[in-house]
Amino acid sequence: MNSKYRKTKLEYGDFQTPPALAEMVCRKLVELDVNPNTIIEPTCGVGNFIQAAARSFPSAAKIIGVEINQNYLTEFRKNKQLFQDNRYDIWHGDFFQFDWDSLVSKCTDRLLVLGNFPWVTNSQQGTIHSENLPKKNNFQSHKGLDALTGKSNFDISEWMLIKAVQWLQNRDADLAMLCKTSTARKILNYIHSQKLYLADCATYTIDAKKYFDANVDACLLYCKFDAHSQNYFCDVFNSLENSDSYRIGYHNNLLIKDIDYFNKLSNLYAVNSGTKWRSGVKHDCSGVMEFRKIDNLFVNGFGENVQLEETYLFPLFKGSDVAQNRINATDRYILVTQKFIGESTETIKTIAPQTWRYLENCGQYLDNRKSKIYQKNPRFSIFGVGDYTFKPWKIAICGLYKKLDFRLIGEIANKPAIFDDTVYFLSFDSERVARQTFELLNSPAAINFYSAIVFWDEKRPIKSSILNCLNLALLADSEFVTADARR
Questions:
Q1: Mind listing the pLDDT tens digit for each residue in 250-279?
Q2: Domain boundary, last residue among 429, 444, 477
Q3: Given strand 233-237, what is the order of strands in its sheet?
Q4: Structural domain includes residue 72
């Protein structure tokens, strides 16, 4: 694959839908009694989807395709037999510049929008200097640190699907799109957050490796719209052929993986549980701030032996250490420059002059950290620190791993354990309370509660917002009162 072709493929998130899959999707829509008068595929590629739709919906009066890649349209138009069907209207156009509102407003009868939007993120597009992007704006309405530290990264298909949902409001219409499963849930979240109309929603898992040679969880997202329903749930099917399903839905604005199962445990849910799971330290400069201790020498990420006081050095556990239960000892250390966010770092100069000289010598790396969160804070600042950071006992779990493995961790060589920002943790002054809480979190009730909520296919399936909603106080009463009664 030459570099120009590869860049083009990356730029357009180019996963052309195989004809066999397009046919299966259209058969499923027929099973669902979808019967459009007009069909639109906004990114039609070589036309596999709209050809399948033309065969599956012979009563459709108009079939419209739009495609930015002129080479695909040329290939599509070579099929002369295809263009004997006067229902086709195929246009060359850029999704992000096209006047969709005008087109959709002319489709006054039942409308079906279907296809397969690009499976790339805006950050990937920026990496290859692509112009195939929507105008930059914080369309997900992230606030504060979330908008500054990466949560504003999104799949291009998410932005495009939101536009399609907006077209189909206040009318009888259907949407059928192949997408990442996580993107499908984001669309349901968007519809719910904006209180838009939605009559029905379902996802059908597809084998992305088989059809696209892509190692992602993917699905067909189907949405039915009308002008009055607000049914904010989604039935999840294991495949296009399987009739067994479970339902995801909302409880107090939190999206639940299995709402029927969760309802049996919902008494353990708390909007304000009083529990506060924290994430680990964020510094964005591992070469400077993290060390290995080798033969009593501290070696930084650049392989340099460094002379430092141990005043600001603490034992470090990465998310992989927590997940793989490597928690009894560590040769990793981290430089923690503050006890709370915004604290002046100037005191390091007096308390630990070697450490201060080291930070100044590495200033170019720390000063060039890209995140805006460092710009108006003291030099050499870090984030994710507070009094909770320095407590002796902690219960930790890695957010990236697909398992509910909680770890109880005490001090290492009389210093509190510190975690990277892939780890969530609770902190305790008392070992007794820490052990009691650890026992609660590993109880069947707690594991079942979290299992009904967590979407394991997400990049970071375990989040503080999920961990915080378990009412540990109520769980403690129910667990230990029952145990005492048995004794």
A1: 998 889 999 999 999 989 998 777 789 999
A2: 429
A3: 88-92, 62-67, 38-41, 111-116, 173-180, 218-225, 200-206, 233-237, 245-251, 254-256
A4: yes
